[in-house]
What does this fold into?
Amino acid sequence: MRTAGHDIMSPQSQLDALLETPRENYLVINKASSNAKKALIKNHQYISQAYVEFDIRRIKQLKKHDIVAFYVPQLQRSYIISVSGVRKEKLGNLVVLGHLHEDKSQRTALELRLSGLSVSGRFKSLNGEYLFRSHAQYGWIASEFEGHRRYLKYPENEKKLEVIARK
It folds into this structure.
């Protein structure tokens, strides 16, 4: 409907336009991956585990105030993280700190370290605390805490392994 050269939209079409417009642009830095399980030889020490694939190229390009999506496969949920700090350390390591985007107190929720092509770190949410590590792009994420439950490491072998040295 047009009147006097102005476009007038119905309230429903205005609502539809608002819903279709993305509110935030964010970068996806990890995703669930079945290839990671095949690529990783060693398992980690925690019981609750899932395999992920990291986008190392995007992680290297992160800047302060970027918004990223961090996926936690155990919860089947992505968390929107606002990057609060990026610093380069000795030997070219990159440390990224971030907080949950909706958190007004801006407590650090994501601690991510990129060393060469390896990613490691910790993610904290209200649902739990998760550790992650990768070798190149493929890695794992494990629950350290979920709610009040602490996941224990796998028990050590009670029987010592016999090692025979060559002479």
